[in-house]
Amino acid sequence: xxxxxxxxxxxxxxAILETGSFDGAAAALGVTPSAITQRIxxxxxxxxxxxxxxxxxxxxxxxxxxxxxxxDEVALLEHGLxxxxxxxxxxxxxxxxxxxxxxxxxxxxxxxxxxxDGMQFDLVLDDQDHSHAWLQRGDVMAAxxxxxxxxxxxxVRPLGALAYRATASPDFMARWFADGLCATSLSQAxxxxxxxxxxxxxxxxxxxxxxxxAGAPVHWLPSTTAFVEAAExxxxxxxxxxxxxxxxxxxxxxxDMGGAFSTPLYWHWNRRIGAQLAPVTQAVRGAARKQxxxx
Length: 295
Description:
CATH architecture of the domain at 162-262: 3-Layer(aba) Sandwich
Low-confidence stretches: none
CATH class of the domain at 162-262: Alpha Beta
Number of helices: 12
GO molecular function, one term: DNA binding
InterPro entries: ArgP, LTTR, LysR_HTH_N, LysR_subst-bd, WH-like_DNA-bd_sf, WH_DNA-bd_sf
Order of helices and strands: HHHEEHEHEHEEHHEHEHEHEEH
Radius of gyration: 23 Å
Pfam families: HTH_1, LysR_substrate
Distance between the termini: 46 Å
Domain HTH lysR-type: 5-61
Structural class: alpha/beta
Keywords: DNA-binding, Transcription, Transcription regulation
Shape: elongated
């Protein structure tokens, strides 16, 4: 069993992983790089395992991730305890690390952040079909995912469904789909895809009965705003969050290719710190209610 873990060493670990380097951690904590190195060496000796993978940026080993999770949870619990006892806060806001998809960040999640005071947000972007893995690894305290399946040690609540529209510019439609949408024309028209994890276009094609369309040129665009602009400029067609293209469809800059499509989203959070995350959970669910259609 581990004895008491030095809080200063845990702070050094967190700072390295947040800044990406020993020098950055030293600057953040106001100590020398050698002091950071010594703290990590003592902590690794104490744990009996390496904690940091040296690189640019530095990253955590499995043991390092678990210790970081512990440090983040302790900081959040202490913050809640100070509030419960009416004690003067330390002035350091606890950090909440959340995994979510880029489209949620671009359309509604900032509304949840605006409703929370006294907490630092550390947001990790990943596809909604993969963000739950961050929670499973213990790399985040909460996650927005497309899966309703409970992660061990976590609770889950539905948020609603983010609506999408398959869109393209009028000129693009005239060039590639003059005779209408079909498997043949879709296999020739350039398609927009966020990244290798993005399966929205494929699922829309299958939902509309076009099957697995192969051979189409693909533009990889890992930016929600660039995705919309690329559709407007006639670079390709793709699935965009409806809140981001509502006006463009209304004024004719984009054409709705038909076929309503939505992605259900779920809020998962670490059960051990559920009470401390309650304000975040309330803000996230409230912001989602303002934005989403029902699942």
